[in-house]
Amino acid sequence: MRINSFSFRVRYAETDQMGIVHHASYVPYLEMGRIEWLRAMDISYRAMEENGIILPVISLQINYKKSALYDDMLTVETRLKQLPMVRIEFEYKIYNDKRELLAEANTVLAFMDQSKNRPIKCPDFILDKLKA
């Protein structure tokens, strides 16, 4: 499945007193990677929400390999694991600018009807774009 890369610089607020990226800072990094992956597929998170479709995270797993530091340039590589049904699963690799693997992660999200708060199958307009 298609891989999308997204790079950014670590901000001071994301680090601890020693200049090491706090473990909780990786969760927003994954979200940024996922949103950029969707955007690269011409799928708008905002448009989905405006149409009553939400994607809550139902599972998150991160394996930390090496510390990221303040001012490091990081790259998040995001890959869709398989075509979605009711759930959509992403795999991630986070690298520093030396191309050292810092973390591997996995998230599972569920397509939900916001008004009914019930799971739904992946909308056809998303499946069509993923199959193209």
From TrEMBL:
Q: Is Hydrolase one of the keywords UniProt gives this record?
A: yes
Report the Pfam families cross-referenced here. 4HBT_2
Residues passing through the membrane, by range: none
Alphabetical keyword list: Hydrolase
InterPro entries registered for this protein in UniProt = 4-hydroxybenzoyl-CoA_TE (IPR050563), HB-CoA_thioesterase_AS (IPR008272), HotDog_dom_sf (IPR029069), YbgC/YbaW (IPR006684)
Tell me the superkingdom of the source: Bacteria
Q: Which SUPFAM superfamilies match?
A: Thioesterase/thiol ester dehydrase-isomerase
Q: Does the keyword Hydrolase apply?
A: yes
The entry sums up its family as follows:
Belongs to the 4-hydroxybenzoyl-CoA thioesterase family.
Name-wise, this protein is Acyl-CoA thioesterase
The root-end lineage is: Bacteria, Pseudomonadati, Bacteroidota, Flavobacteriia, Flavobacteriales
